[in-house]
Design goal:
Elements lengths: L28 E2 L11 E2 L1 E2 L12 E4 L8 E3 L9 E3 L8 E5 L4 E3 L1 H4 L3 E3 L3 E3 L5 E3 L7 E6 L3 E12 L4 E14 L5 E8 L12 E5 L2 E2 L9 E3 L6 E5 L5 E6 L3 E8 L3 H7 L11 E8 L34 H4 E2 L29
Parallel strand pairs: 2-6, 3-8
Antiparallel strand pairs: 1-5, 4-7, 5-6, 7-8, 9-10, 9-22, 10-11, 12-13, 12-23, 13-14, 14-15, 15-16, 16-17, 18-19, 19-20, 20-21, 21-22
Bound molecules: 2-acetamido-2-deoxy-beta-D-glucopyranose.
Pfam family, one: Root_cap
Keywords: Signal
Length: 353
Amino acid sequence: MAVRGGAIAAVVALVLTLALLCGTASAQGFLGINRKAKQPPKRSTPGNPKQLPPKGKYTTVVTNKYHKRDYEITCTTDYGASCYIKCPARCPNKCLAYCAYCLTFCLCDLMPGTSCGDPRFTGADGNTFYFHGKKDESFCLVTDDHLHINARFMGNHNAESGRDFTWVQSLGITFDRDDHRNHSLYIGARRAAEWDEEDDHVVLVLDGEPVDVEAAKNARWVSGTVPGLSVTRTHDVNAVTVELDGVFSVSANAVPITDEESRVHSYGKTEKDSLVHLDVGYTFHGLTKDVDGVLGQTYRPNYVNKLDITAKMPIMGGEERYRSSGLFATDCAVSRFHRAAGRSADGFTSFAS
Ligand SMILES: *[C@@H]1O[C@H](CO)[C@@H](O)[C@H](O)[C@H]1NC(C)=O
């Protein structure tokens, strides 16, 4: 990537397929250039995800090594003040900025069907909860007649607080299509002692064969063996969207734990591991009404949230129900993979999710 004068635009607008709101705002960040603002510049503050600004125009802000955490974003606001964006501590590297209100939000807080960070899930019903799982073990996130997704958790034990922190290290996706073969797709985050944002940390393997996608934004790989399966890079490195036509679209971002996050949350990050993990957004098509799993159950048409959603951040317990014996095992207690009672000849009953 060419760096012109050390001051190139620091703001990248992402296409957000999962976005609730349509946001077409584009903005430019400038470093070292003082815009003459009619009003004194403001500093952004984190917004409340439950109270989104009514004017749903946002910009995705991504930090990079040339531009640290503060940006001046030039917005087309009614009153013309510039807004210095600083992403919230929970998502210091990437956030949504609602310029008009000078508010910021973490992507993972807003979209149904996500698992992010320490792992925080947002269910199909829009409610957010933690599921901590256990480090170095796998749990079923989504389990349905023809689709099963496990997540393997990684973690860090903080001796000072005595607490284990976990993140999603990889996804093991098992599915079958008309060929009645079980396919396995691995999406993982590669470990790195030190994070270098120009290195790719996403690893993809289909049925035991590595999937190589050219490291360029929009580069696309189409499977020669599984019809309808494709991978598209949404950035040059560290961000992919994996799609299986008519079944799912999974957007995975490999992200590190920054020193600042570690300090704020006392993660106890050491110099030897940047704790690279996956933040994931999921879209499903044609799940059955019996779908289960940590995230999957929230897609049931009759799903009733039993968590205490008035708690600051509810925790989903019941680890035993979701534990899998391996990343590609379909044996968690709530497994629905190939378990449909009275399966009809043509597969499954689908409903629009
Ligand atoms: C696919 O996996 C399911 C569940 O483990 C199993 O019952 C089924 O026999 C497998 N199908 C094939 C073709 O191996």
